[in-house]
Design a protein that fits this description.
Elements lengths: L3 H4 L3 E3 L2 H23 L2 E5 L6 H7 L13 E5 L1 E3 L9 H8 L21 H15 L12 E4 L24 E6 L4 E6 L1 H4 L4 E6 L5 H9 L18 E7 L11
Helix pairs in contact: 2-3
This protein binds 6-phosphogluconic acid (6PG).
């Protein structure tokens, strides 16, 4: 387990533009290290509005050319149970902004399939896909090289919301569950998978996130109230990239 200080010390960027630059450069660095070490890079993308400009930067030079895209494998940390041609679908968002513009082999893109019509079937299928891709033994847990996470104003991460059934899942890698706050079903990786990542990067922007961010980074709220507080990698690292607006509630050292 990491020390509290290492887990919760954020990097504060002046604005979303700088946050996105740093996030995109970080993606490139982690990708290069993983490809050099293992011959491939496995990354989980998130939905939400915050990573949009990061995804946009990765398709432009000089970053685009700094990544060996044919060695990159793209997964998703959660998905909305809506058709894949809906602009709010996470795969669709990443496809439009980034994946369609990169020299990525089609077989390296691993979206959640069928969540709109059969969320539970899609969760089971995505779990099987992870087990097969990572060559996992029964009850094995994959270690992604990098997982992108956003955080909601209520402290939710991926599609693990305060009070969600899936928060207490300890065996399954992927679940579908009803999220009462959204009155919708969502599909999400579970905490064991998030916590086995080699590296997690949180992107948090905007004043609406300030109270939850303060509670997560500096204490307050129960763990159930703040799913982000449950991200505690077994041996990996966490980078919090936040902007000044999101940081506005933090107590700063003089
Ligand atoms: C989604 C994500 C969710 C998101 C946060 C932050 O469904 O959009 O799964 O976890 O990352 O809600 O979203 P923003 O980046 O839009 O603030």
């Amino acid at each position: 387990m990491k020390t509290e200080q290492a887990l919760y010390r954020p990097t504060v960027c002046p604005d979303l533009a700088e946050l996105s630059e740093q996030a995109a450069r970080f993606f490139v660095d982690v990708a290069r290290q993983a490809v050099g070490r293992e011959g491939r890079f496995t990354v989980c993308l998130s939905g939400g509005s915050t990573p949009r400009s990061t995804y946009g930067l990765l398709v432009r030079e000089p970053l685009r050319n700094a990544v060996s895209w044919r060695h990159v494998h793209i997964f998703w940390g959660d998905e909305r149970c809506i058709p894949s041609d809906d602009p709010d679908n996470h795969y669709r968002m990443a496809w439009d902004l980034m994946l369609s513009k990169l020299p990525l082999p089609a077989e390296n893109i691993h979206p959640v399939r069928g969540a709109a019509s059969n969320p539970e079937g899609a969760a089971v299928e995505y779990e099987a896909l992870l087990q097969s891709f990572f060559g996992l033994a029964s009850h094995g847990i994959p270690s992604f090289d990098l997982i992108f996470l956003g955080m909601g104003a209520d402290g939710h991460i991926a599609s693990l919301f305060p009070g969600s059934a899936g928060l207490s899942e300890s065996r399954r890698l992927v679940v579908s569950h009803y999220v009462s706050q959204l009155q919708a079903t969502r599909l999400t990786l579970t905490l064991p998978v998030l916590n086995h990542a080699r590296q997690i990067i949180f992107l948090v922007s905007g004043e609406s996130k300030a109270p939850a961010l303060r509670a997560v980074l500096q204490g307050g709220g129960t763990q159930e109230e703040l799913p982000a507080r449950l991200v505690r990698p077994v041996s990996g690292r966490v980078l919090w990239l936040i902007d000044e607006a999101a940081a506005s509630g933090l107590e700063r050292e003089p």
